[in-house]
Amino acid sequence: MSDGRTAQVYSGESLLFLTDEQLRQGIEAMFFAYRGFTADPDRILLDKGYGRAHHRAVHFINRAPGTTVNNLLAILGVTKQSLNRVLRTLIEDGLVESRVGTLDKRERHLFLTEAGQELEAQLSDAQRARMRAAYREAGPEAVAGFRQVLEAMMDADMRRTFAKLRDNGQ
Amino acid sequence: MSDGRTAQVYSGESLLFLTDEQLRQGIEAMFFAYRGFTADPDRILLDKGYGRAHHRAVHFINRAPGTTVNNLLAILGVTKQSLNRVLRTLIEDGLVESRVGTLDKRERHLFLTEAGQELEAQLSDAQRARMRAAYREAGPEAVAGFRQVLEAMMDADMRRTFAKLRDNGQ
DNA sequence: CAGCTTACGTCAGCCTTGTTGACATTCCAA
DNA sequence: TTGGAATGTCAACAAGGCTGACGTAAGCTG
Q1: pTM (2 decimals)?
Q2: Range A26-138: architecture per CATH
Q3: 170 residues of chain B, pLDDT tens digit each
Q4: Does A66 lie at the interface with B, CB-CB under 8 angstroms?
Q5: Can you say whether residue B12 is alpha, beta or left, with left for phi > 0 and alpha for psi between -120 and 50 degrees?
Q6: Do A25 and B169 make contact, defined as CB atoms within 8 angstroms?
Q7: Chain A residues close to B165, C-beta within 8 Å
Q8: What is the CATH number of domain B21-138?
Q9: Which of A23, A130, B101, B131 is found 20 to 30 A from A87 (Cα to Cα)?
């Protein structure tokens, strides 16, 4: 595959020639953009003694309040031991509340406390601010394309998870 | 900022209303897409006993053969100790060659050996295949937008680095 | 009811990859 | 010749992944 330097792709009305060089630029763009994407929350987390793993947990608990540990596990794609370590500190620090399920008492339902919601808002605001600036700079058509390519880059099961969260939110 | 649920943004010809919900969907799309983005190389690296850090080093050495350690440091944004550990194993394993500089003998210039180029090609092929599929699915206009938003998401210094690599390549 | 499965937590240990700090070497340049 | 820059290396540590094993409580099923 690395022998063929270009791939011809028909899409919509126009022919798209994708050279390895163009694809590599896309790859590098993802790499650098992801750094920017995480930079602002990372700074905030650092002086609170948390890491990216805490951010992810807080984000998705906020996104789907009352979610179970198992569900969160599936979304984050890590082991329960990994998640538990993070979750334990968040609960100890009073940012997350874990309630035993009423229907199924084996399950723990996770909620952000007020303090947890505050942290989430702080992280979220920073990340959204960068996102908003990027969206503004690139323009509405670019944003639509951005979303399309990202979704097409996901594995099938991630796409389902993403869609579920999206439809859940609105 | 988290009180205001929408931000009005004028861009080009049309008004773009960016709700927090829309921005959050973009954030989650980045999260899930990045997982997909790294999944294929990660699998290949795993059974060779390497990690993502090795991939990054190999990628950028291939991209700019003869680059110095300091230059690579700037691109990757890690400490020299971190990079050195990775570089050492790659050199020991005969994937990377480190040549003392002729002009400035303090500098080490890094090159991929044949074996290094083979690994790079393998990783690159996998990552490009996913990229190509995503580009094809989303279409050419989407790709342009994708690239624009990603670039707008980078920090200023990353944008310079990215542009330099891009212009270097072509 | 007995027994299997599920959900969750936890302990122990390992790996990668990031960090800081300290120090040696080499070598260019003022 | 001396200071500073580029590089490498040692040590120690932390976050956050992982596996494996085990325990408990609860639900399900024959």
Answers
A1: 0.90
A2: Orthogonal Bundle (1.10)
A3: 444 445 444 444 455 678 889 999 999 999 999 999 999 999 999 989 999 999 999 999 999 999 999 999 999 999 999 999 999 999 999 999 999 888 888 889 999 999 999 999 999 999 999 999 999 999 999 999 999 999 999 999 999 999 999 887 75
A4: no
A5: left
A6: yes
A7: 28
A8: 1.10.10.10
A9: A130
**ipTM of the assembly?**
0.90
Is the distance between the Cβ of B78 and the closest atom of strand D smaller than 7 Å?
no
Residue B107 (CA) to nucleotide C22 (C1'), in angstroms, measures 22
Option in B20, B56, B137 nearest A152 (CB): B137
Measured distance CA(B23)–CA(B21) in Å, rounded: 5
- With beta carbons under 8 A apart, name residues in chain A contacting B158: 32, 35-36
Distance CA B30, CA B42 (A): 18
Q: Which residues of B touch A62 (CB under 8 A)?
A: none
Task: Give how far the C-alpha of residue A62 lies from the chain's centroid of Cα atoms, to the nearest Å.
Answer: 12
